[in-house]
Each structure stands twice: as structure tokens, then as C-alpha cells.
């Protein structure tokens, strides 16, 4: 069996039905375990995103932490992945993306809480946290340290592929096919832009992400709304068709699906898979950014970072899905090959129904911004995972430079085996992370209920509460942990 076949077999498992059931199942368990508080407090969490309370231990503001996490999660999956899911799984796949994201709120909350609770301070005074530290400091045995080691290795390897080369290649391919811009030129620009941001570390990444991510999200949001508004007559029927196909056990076709045929199980598989790939709930990546936030309580940042799943899947992915559904292009075939149009070409076709040739420009800009921001976010993930494995600062600086240079390789070369390998590493991150979440579910629940009682109940009434303001009212263990 050759390498490609082995990687394909592993990928079929780590991104297959069994793993996806475990992912969603963990989300369901945590949602019930936390008495649905992540759902009940979603509005409160969104308000916390824009809170100015950042005078606590940490490297970046809570908002910058969320934007760094979103910079990595809002990527090509929101444009290409949604279109692919709707072709392979039918329009119903979008419904299953929403369902998986709903339970993913609790997963993202839980892993972010553990990241802040068990974070440490490194040799240069920066916060170091994420699932690997929760595994080491929370599980407290050799098994926990083994999980932490494996998770960190998977993150470092995945960062060069999923978080770097594939993103750079997406930018280069989009600009080359649409406007015949040479890939070497695109690669050079990406490399220079990346190294100018990454060489200065998390504060630089957080600052740039806090500008780029909102800007690109607003741009895509309004461009999508224009398409949906123009084609609004088709939206109600489109939504009905999505839910019909999402819960139909028989293969169905018609309506906005055109020639698309998909059963409930097919819709579920592709919807959940692309949803998880897009919002990364359960992957363990976003909590690494959560650990850098200045916050007074692990649960507060858990709520803030939890909203990343809401913004990514329930807003951005939903917009892409409605654009495609309302434009009537789903199920269209390529006149030259006779194959169904999928991926970025389907999204471009949908935008072009309203913007004409400018549809190609809108999607190209969106992909470029989304993919570049993903490169920034994933460098930080890979750096912190490498820092866990190797403490020497020169190695970390070398990683920043190497990571930036690899973007040029990704933009100018097609390395399918490397991409498949990194995709495998990306999926393998899930296994130790889910074990950690389930193992430490009592820690998550304790932080959640403590915060609900001492902070949320008061702040919902408009009363300002600083959890660290009066140490006498805080258990010594919790206070020491929150001040790390």
C-alpha cells in the first residue's frame, strides 16, 4: 500500500462518521452537563466580546483573542467547504452544519475554559496554554503528558499544511484563475506580509486580526446580503427544501437541489464534517488563542471564544449557503465536462447571478482575506504547540521565519501528499482533545457554575462584577489558578 492510500485510509477514519459522531456526542454531553448554559448565555457571551475589561493577566484583549481564533477558523471552508458540502450532501447539509455548531458551542466553551484555567507563563512572560497544558496540568499523570505530547506534535505538523500551504495555495489559485496573476508573485506578497506580522508574535497577530477579521466579515456579510435580497423570492422555498432534504431518509432531488441527490445520512455526514472543519469546535486549536487573553475568570473567556462557533458557522457559513440556495445555481453542471459545479466555482457562480463579472472579484477578495488570516492564526497555534515541546526561544523564532517562507511553497506548488498528511494530523488532534474534555468535564462544570452564580447572575442585572476584585470571596485554589 502506498503512502497516499495509507493517508486516505486514515483520513477516512479521522474525518469519518465514527469520529464525527464522537465530536457531536461530546458537544451534546457537555451541553447537558452544563445545563444548557452555553445556549442560555449566548446573548450574554456576545456582549462580552465587546467588553473593555482587559486589565488582567494575559497578552491580548479578550476581543483580540477571539479575533485571533476567528482568523484561523474563518477560512476557505466558509466559502469552498460550504459549497462542496451542499453538492455532496445536498442543501440539507447546511442544516446539519447548524445543528453541529449548536452543540459545538459547548465544546468550544469547555476547551477554552480549560485552556485559561491551566495556562502557564513562559520564559518571556507570555501566556502559554491550550489543550496540551490542560492535559498535563489537569489529568496529572503520564497518560496526560502523553496526550499533551501527541496533541502538540499533531498541531505543529498540521500548521504547515492546513494552516499554511493549503491557504496560500487557495489564494494563489483564486487570483491566478480569475485574473492570471502569477503564482510566484502572489506567493511573494503573502510571504512578505506574513513574516512582517508573525515575526513580532502574538501581540502583532492579535492587533492585525482585530482589524482584518471584522473588516473581512463585514465585507462578506453585506455582499452576501445583497445577493440574498435580490433573490429573496427563492429564499423561503430554499429554506424549506434544506430542512426537507436534511431529514429525509430517502434519496431526494429537486427544488433548489436541482440534480443533487442526497439522503439524510449523507447530508448529516457532509454537514457535520464541513461544519467541524470550518468552526474547529472539538479540534483543540482555538483554545490556544483563548489562553492568551486578559481575563478575570476562565469561564468569561470561555463564553467569549464560544461565540467564534456562532459567528463562523451560524453566520458566515449560513450566508454562503443562502447565497447558493437562493441563486438557483446548486446542481448546475459544467458544459465542458458534464460534472456538477462545486467548490469555489459554485460560490462564484452564485455571486455572479447578481454582481456579474464582479462576483469573481468579490469571492477572490474574500478567499484572499479569509485564507491569509487563517495563516496568521495557525502560526500562533503551531508556535505554542512547538513551545510546549521545545522551550528554546531561538527555535520559536526560527519557526516563525520558516512558517512564513513555507507560504511561498504552498502558493507555487501542489504537494498532494503533504496536504493529505497535514489533513490527517489536523483530524488526529481531535482524539486527545476529546479525551481531555471528557476526562476534565467536572472542572469545566465547576468553572461554569461558579461563574454563573458569582458573576453572570449579577451582570445580567447590569451590575459590574470583577471576579478577582475581592480575593477574600474567592476560594484560594481558584484565585491562584486564575492569576497564573
From TrEMBL:
Coiled coil: none annotated. GO terms for molecular function: amino acid:sodium symporter activity. One of its GO terms (cellular component) is plasma membrane. The keyword Membrane applies. Pfam families: Na_Ala_symp. It comes from the Bacteria. InterPro entries: Na/Ala_symport. It is found in: Cell membrane. This is Sodium:alanine symporter family protein. Belongs to the alanine or glycine:cation symporter (AGCS) (TC 2.A.25) family. Its main location: membrane. Keywords: Cell membrane, Membrane, Symport, Transmembrane, Transmembrane helix, Transport. The keyword Cell membrane applies. It is a multi-pass membrane protein. It comes from Selenomonas bovis. The chain crosses the membrane at residues 12-32, 142-161, 181-199, 211-234, 246-265, 310-330, 361-381, 401-419.
Amino acid at each position: 500500500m502506498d503512502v497516499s492510500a495509507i493517508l486516505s485510509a486514515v483520513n477516512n477514519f479521522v474525518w469519518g462518521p465514527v469520529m464525527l459522531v464522537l465530536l457531536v456526542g461530546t458537544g451534546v454531553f457537555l451541553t447537558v452537563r452544563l445545563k444548557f448554559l452555553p445556549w442560555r448565555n449566548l446573548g450574554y457571551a456576545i456582549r462580552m466580546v465587546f467588553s473593555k475589561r482587559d486589565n488582567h493577566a494575559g497578552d491580548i484583549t479578550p476581543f483580540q483573542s477571539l479575533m485571533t481564533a476567528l482568523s484561523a477558523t474563518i477560512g476557505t471552508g466558509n466559502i469552498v467547504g460550504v459549497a462542496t458540502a451542499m453538492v455532496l450532501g445536498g442543501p440539507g447539509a447546511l442544516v446539519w452544519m447548524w445543528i453541529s455548531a449548536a452543540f459545538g458551542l459547548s465544546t468550544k466553551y469547555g476547551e477554552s475554559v480549560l485552556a485559561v484555567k491551566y495556562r502557564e507563563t513562559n520564559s518571556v512572560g507570555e501566556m502559554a496554554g491550550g489543550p496540551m497544558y490542560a492535559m498535563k496540568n489537569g489529568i496529572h499523570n503520564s497518560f496526560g503528558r502523553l496526550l499533551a505530547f501527541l496533541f502538540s506534535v499533531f498541531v505543529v505538523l498540521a500548521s504547515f499544511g492546513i494552516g499554511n500551504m493549503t491557504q496560500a495555495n487557495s489564494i494563489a489559485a483564486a487570483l491566478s484563475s480569475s485574473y492570471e496573476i502569477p503564482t510566484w508573485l502572489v506567493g511573494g506578497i503573502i510571504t512578505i506580509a506574513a513574516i512582517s506580522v508573525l515575526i513580532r508574535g502574538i501581540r502583532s497577530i492579535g492587533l492585525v486580526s482585530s482589524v482584518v477579521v471584522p473588516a473581512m466579515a463585514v465585507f462578506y456579510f453585506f455582499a452576501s446580503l445583497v445577493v440574498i435580497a435580490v433573490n429573496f423570492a427563492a429564499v423561503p422555498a430554499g429554506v424549506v427544501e434544506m430542512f426537507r432534504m436534511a431529514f429525509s431518509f430517502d434519496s431526494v432531488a429537486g427544488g433548489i437541489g436541482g440534480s443533487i441527490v442526497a439522503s439524510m445520512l449523507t447530508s448529516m455526514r457532509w454537514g457535520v464534517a464541513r461544519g467541524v472543519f470550518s468552526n474547529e469546535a472539538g479540534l483543540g486549536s482555538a483554545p490556544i488563542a483563548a489562553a492568551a487573553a486578559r481575563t478575570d475568570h476562565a469561564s468569561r473567556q470561555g463564553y467569549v471564544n464560544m461565540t467564534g462557533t456562532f459567528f463562523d458557522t451560524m453566520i458566515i457559513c449560513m450566508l454562503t449557503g443562502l447565497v447558493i440556495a437562493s441563486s438557483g445555481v446548486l446542481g448546475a453542471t459544467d458544459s465542458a465536462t458534464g460534472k456538477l459545479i462545486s467548490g469555489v466555482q459554485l460560490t462564484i457562480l452564485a455571486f455572479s447571478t447578481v454582481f456579474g463579472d464582479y462576483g469573481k472579484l468579490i469571492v477572490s477578495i474574500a478567499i484572499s482575506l479569509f485564507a491569509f488570516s487563517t495563516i496568521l492564526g495557525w502560526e500562533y497555534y503551531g508556535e505554542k504547540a512547538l513551545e510546549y515541546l521545545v522551550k528554546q526561544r531561538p527555535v520559536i523564532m526560527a519557526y516563525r521565519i520558516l512558517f512564513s517562507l513555507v507560504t511561498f511553497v504552498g502558493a507555487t506548488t501542489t504537494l498532494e501528499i503533504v496536504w493529505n498528511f497535514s489533513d490527517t494530523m489536523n483530524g488526529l488532534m481531535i482524539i486527545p482533545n476529546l479525551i481531555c474534555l471528557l476526562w476534565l468535564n467536572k472542572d469545566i462544570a465547576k468553572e461554569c457554575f461558579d461563574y454563573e452564580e458569582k458573576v453572570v447572575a449579577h451582570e445580567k442585572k447590569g451590575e459590574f462584577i470583577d471576579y478577582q476584585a475581592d480575593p477574600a470571596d474567592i476560594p484560594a485554589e481558584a484565585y491562584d489558578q486564575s492569576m497564573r
